[in-house]
Amino acid sequence: MKVIIVGAGIGGTSAAIALQRQGHEVMIYDRMRENRPVGAALSLWANGVKVLNWLGLADEVAALGGRMDDMAYLDGHTGDTMCRFSLDPVTEQTGQRAYPVVRADLQMLLMETVGLDRIHLGRRVVEVRQDADSATVVFDDGATDTGDLVIGADGARSLVRDHVTDVAGGGPRIERRYSGYTNFNGLVPADPAIGPADQWTTYVADGKRCAVMPVADDRFYFFVDVPQPSGTPYDPADGIAPLEEAFVGWAPGVRALLDAIDPETSFNRVEIWDIDPFDTWVRGRVALLGDAAHNTAPDIGQGACSALEDSFALAISIATHTRGVEDALRRYERIRTERAADLVLRARARAHETHAFDPDLTQAWYDGLRTEDGTAIIRGIVGNTVDSPINLGAGLL
């Protein structure tokens, strides 16, 4: 069977590997001209790592991952420790260590595993067509490619999604929803002045968050949240000026982080949006995957993991059902929509709690952190993985 995938991100490439391992011919097309992912790094929790293990990449992913043994919250103004605890219970309960990884490194690993000759960059899909026997993508230069099915892994602004929801025929156009804050992220050298090299360290105050996670090669992935209106002006020439303004007078560890950022080397500014959950992921021989189906705010670290779950569920459905492509895709849709929607809403609720959109709620969270022994936070992290299809009923103890 020939599979066409639109989008060479984490979801598209992982789906390609899974389907290739089943013997299918896969072609990937992406409008990007080089491997330049949005965002410096990502969190791979147990559910995402297990999918990559299943794809045969366990050793490679472990080599890319930072060693994150502990987690701590610090008062953003004083630097005082609010709570600190081991993440070992997460590993023990899920059966898999979590790995923060550099997104570009993971994406390149996945692309190389697919085979760079199967991935065509600089190809923009402008239309999707299908009939009873095939599905076709049309490119902006008028060329086409036809396969047995098309997977739309083309991101939050997905063109394939418009075909699936039949916008041209009067169906709904799925719109993004602003999450209320801007995220700044990048990579810096690990520095004990910011936090221990094996710890996820987060400074919080005033609805803002300043965090670092360890990644490979003795580096920190930093991600900093600033609540602000969508469309707030920013000139890249200003570098970290918005962070200097937002974190005046914060703790020495935050100052050390700001001093370490090199905007010319690694600095991204991303407004955070999500999409209201919807149930129509499949139309005939065309299906959605990843952000095209469930664009999720990063507040629970499950965006990439959810896309990896999609890849697992899609491949399992295609491998185990023999009533045709359309039937297998409908069963994939049935497996994934409720679970993915739950993660979108969990992340949205988390963003509301942590960014002072309700000041009393956020203050209550801060107060709770000062008495936290890790039990509640670990319960939340593990709870995000409980219903993952990769567990097959045996993933948690």
TrEMBL record:
<comment type="pathway">
    <text>Purine metabolism; urate degradation.</text>
</comment>
<dbReference type="GO" id="GO:0071949">
    <property type="term" value="F:FAD binding"/>
</dbReference>
<keyword id="KW-0520">NAD</keyword>
<dbReference type="InterPro" id="IPR047712">
    <property type="entry name" value="HpxO"/>
</dbReference>
<protein>
    <recommendedName>
        <fullName>FAD-dependent urate hydroxylase</fullName>
        <ecNumber>1.14.13.113</ecNumber>
    </recommendedName>
</protein>
<dbReference type="GO" id="GO:0004846">
    <property type="term" value="F:urate oxidase activity"/>
</dbReference>
<dbReference type="GO" id="GO:0102099">
    <property type="term" value="F:FAD-dependent urate hydroxylase activity"/>
</dbReference>
<dbReference type="GO" id="GO:0019628">
    <property type="term" value="P:urate catabolic process"/>
</dbReference>
<dbReference type="GO" id="GO:0006144">
    <property type="term" value="P:purine nucleobase metabolic process"/>
</dbReference>
<dbReference type="InterPro" id="IPR036188">
    <property type="entry name" value="FAD/NAD-bd_sf"/>
</dbReference>
<keyword id="KW-0503">Monooxygenase</keyword>
<keyword id="KW-0659">Purine metabolism</keyword>
<dbReference type="Pfam" id="PF01494">
    <property type="entry name" value="FAD_binding_3"/>
</dbReference>
<keyword id="KW-0285">Flavoprotein</keyword>
<keyword id="KW-0274">FAD</keyword>
<dbReference type="InterPro" id="IPR002938">
    <property type="entry name" value="FAD-bd"/>
</dbReference>
<keyword id="KW-0560">Oxidoreductase</keyword>
<comment type="similarity">
    <text>Belongs to the FAD-dependent urate hydroxylase family.</text>
</comment>
<dbReference type="InterPro" id="IPR050493">
    <property type="entry name" value="FAD-dep_Monooxygenase_BioMet"/>
</dbReference>
